[in-house]
Description:
Layout: H1 7-33, H2 74-80, H3 93-105, H4 113-125, E1 132-133, E2 136-137, E3 139-142, E4 145-148, H5 152-156, H6 171-190, H7 200-213, H8 230-241, E5 245-249, H9 253-266, H10 280-292, H11 307-316, E6 319-325, H12 333-343, E7 348-349, E8 353-357, E9 369-372, E10 381-383, E11 386-391, E12 394-401, E13 405-415, E14 420-426, E15 429-436, E16 440-443, E17 447-449, E18 452-460, E19 465-468, E20 476-477, E21 481-482, E22 496-499, E23 501-510, E24 518-520, E25 524-530, E26 534-536, E27 540-549, E28 557-564, E29 570-576, H13 578-581, E30 592-601, E31 609-619, E32 636-644
Parallel strand pairs: 5-6, 15-30, 26-32
Antiparallel strand pairs: 1-2, 3-4, 6-8, 7-8, 9-12, 10-11, 11-23, 12-18, 13-16, 13-17, 13-23, 14-15, 14-18, 19-22, 20-21, 24-25, 25-27, 27-30, 28-29, 28-31, 31-32
Helix pairs in contact: 3-6, 4-6
Amino acid sequence: AGQLRHGHIRAALLAALALALVLLLPLYWPILAANASVSATNAQVGGVVSQSVDLLSVFVPPPEHPLLRRSALATLAQNAVNTPYEAIGYAGYAALLSAAFGMWALRGQHALRPWLWLLLGAGVLMLGPLLKVSGHVLTIAVEGRAHSILLPYQALAQLPLFQWSRAPARFALTFHFALAVLGAYGVAQLLPRLRATVPAWLVVGALAAFSIGERLVALPFPLAPQLESPVLKTLAANCARDQRTVVNIPAEYTANYLGLYGQTVHHCPLLGGRVFRGVPAGETSLQFVDALLRPGPAQDIVDRPALEEVNGALAHYSVGYIHLQHLSEGYSEAQRNWLRSAFAEPAAAGDVEDLFVVAPAVPNGTRPVWALAPGQWTDAEQWGSAPARWVSGSARLYIFLHQPQRGHLVFTAIPGLQLHRMDLLVNGKVAGTYAVGDWAPYASPTLDLPAGANVIEFVDRSGTETIWGDLRCLGGTPLAGRFAPPVICDPHLKGARAVSFALQTVDFVPGAAPAPLAQFGAALHLMQTDWPTEVAAGAALPVLLTWQALQKPGADYTFFIHVKDAAGKLVAQYDGQPLANNFSTLQLNSAEHLSFHLAVPLPAGLPAGNYQLVLGVYASQTGTRLDTAQGTDGLLQLGAVRVRAP
């Protein structure tokens, strides 16, 4: 501490700190930049307790130890270490005794203090948020109620870096490092105290042998012959002359590890593949290809690719072989049958696997290639003139591009019975936010998508709702009113479903997103309008309005539509708030999109002819209209509608 009084010492320490920050910032910057996308689950207690060290496991050897396996302590050890990884904190008695001797021999010396504090700090943190002993979270009774014993990690879990970690047991590495340093101090103090008749090499060798022996989990180390199934033999023969990529599907846990083993036989490159953590780009490519190689209806919420487009996308990744693993999670006979229809009979097959060979193709094309993530969408339902699929919480789809392209997404959203706030994520980043309360079309901002597979994800921030049966049978919703397009009800669709919203007609349109049609005040952009070109007198004229908030509105606004004849006389009008007067613009968030219909009742005796539609917005409390530079006196001319006789 006395050396810190010298300026050159402090300058050297500051320089070292600055250098450390420069070296570490590139490693932590992706985490800091992705703060908004880090899953909140990792910050919850339940997500980390299973990945925390059991206090008993610090003192009990691994349960598979040869000497422990058949002893009375086997059950105790199994309870203490109930996961195969990231929860083993066994310190080892050789290290503990050596460290204890070192601390006794050097008691009072400052050199040990940093390592002792590091040992204690890491030891407490590796136990996680709750104290766990022998597989059970310890509790204490307070006023008749059981309460878990909270540890410091629970408080620190709210801080960055701690908040994003899901495995407190990884602090065991720091714990063991500090213990090893203290143990080295102990050995260094022990050796000079030995009698001359006891050689130092014998003591050090005995400690090393004991340290290894008390951690052994298998003796002798198990070996197994390399099994070569007919599929792997065929694949190895093909790979010897054609080193194209192997795809192991379904893209799940079991297929991944079977594929890694298979590569030791056939030696072809793999698409994706991970030992513990995968490379994001490779994982996305594998998941896209798995989704691409699945059957679906001819008409769907996205354009189904033709077989030549599928082959073109596979050629982009140099895919030559499809290894279908029957034992994997997500396997289905439907996918196997589709592969047989697309790529002919398997080149080799076994009881639990099939090998399909992909004919070489040229990786070119102009159209986007779409694929729906399996297991995340309901079956398609016909809503009006197009099919729709429901989302429960979140759902992904993939768009593959042969070349980088600028464009924007368009889609139609169908709400449930409640308002749902939706985030549109493109390659993990929020591209747009939407308040979905009406059956209406939406568009994204301009997107610059790279070549290859891009991930489009729709996320419900409001949480799912439960509906019973077929929503089409209701004919409308409280927020959207009556459905304008005709829908066919399926009375056989019964039971409860947890849903967020449905999507249909999803597409990627080249070019920049359309500019706003008008701006009202400082808070609202009018993005899109639509209405029927012709309507009967006496009917209601539905006018679709799509808005985006430039900032959070500071007032509750009312929207109105005026219908005027050729002389400019007002013949019909409707004033109302969004979503059948169930939504206040005070609830609209900055940058959020909102679509809704205003139904203008037309007089039954209105003469046939062309009429002009005029839009305006005013503050509900004061009646003051919002100005718009695209109109006059707060009125925007929308266009014409033809009224016919009833």
